[in-house]
């Protein structure tokens, strides 16, 4: 039985696990074809990544078109590079897929703005394209939202899902996804759960029947009391609804959180999979617990169902097991952990991977090209356990 919890964060740097900076950049840069930078009016200070996927040999990064000046919304770098290096990003799968903004993608065949990507067990990459340009400037709906599935062996598109109008709203912004292959015949019969952040709700896609439906609940909306964020002394306001998602295959639960809240919620995947809810049907949503401040990324270790999250104000990574109520502080770093936009769990090496973005500086336009602002960080949990922080985090 899940236990509701109150998260009280106690920070102590000596208890942190080691942060391995895999890659870092002052500002992102792409390896452009000839004259591509001039044609696209590339502005590196407007490029910030929000999505991460790691394969055997590559790291994929989603760079949404939040503002003007983003040339490619999906990029790739080699996985094995010198620690702390700053490789130039390559447009994925190629530059032809990112022609939007030059009057050459009127058919919407390419990629408009991608926030998250996920790989499945069939070595395919699922790309969630929001179809929204300049989301933090004037929110232009330029193409229908869609899922684009790439075969990672060939880097060719094997499937495109354009969502029907009835599951969307005029201001829908699809930002995150979870692929659920549990008990459905593998990746060919997977369910995909997606967050609609601006018109708060969840969109479910049934790949077996090629159908989609929408669920809405007040817990998916932002809380005005938590719309202000303070990171390293800088404050900004953002009223974002549900965006953080993670999935427990063993418990059959989807965990979710709006950005503008201090709460974490859950819903059984059986309720998501049974189809559109009836008009007066009550969704079985549970308050899992409260955190010390807002957070964006969520990840889960499927071995024991430990949930990892990052309280924004505290520049830390914490863990909590909702079954045993075991809690621990994983890492704390006031510089390197400013605004963890994405958390990922990797079974292969028992590690947490994350994107640290200093988003507050991009948002407030105080970013400096002379400082490290963007990092891919790996935190190994295998060598040792953070001892001494097993109480006073959740109750």
Automatic annotation (TrEMBL):
GO terms for cellular component: extracellular region. Keywords: Secreted, Signal. It is found in: Secreted. Coiled coil: none annotated. InterPro entries: 6-blade_b-propeller_TolB-like, MRJP/yellow-related. Residues 1-16 form the signal peptide. PANTHER family: PROTEIN YELLOW-RELATED, RE55542P. Belongs to the major royal jelly protein family. This is Protein yellow-like Protein. It comes from Tribolium castaneum. The lineage of its organism: Eukaryota, Metazoa, Ecdysozoa, Arthropoda, Hexapoda.
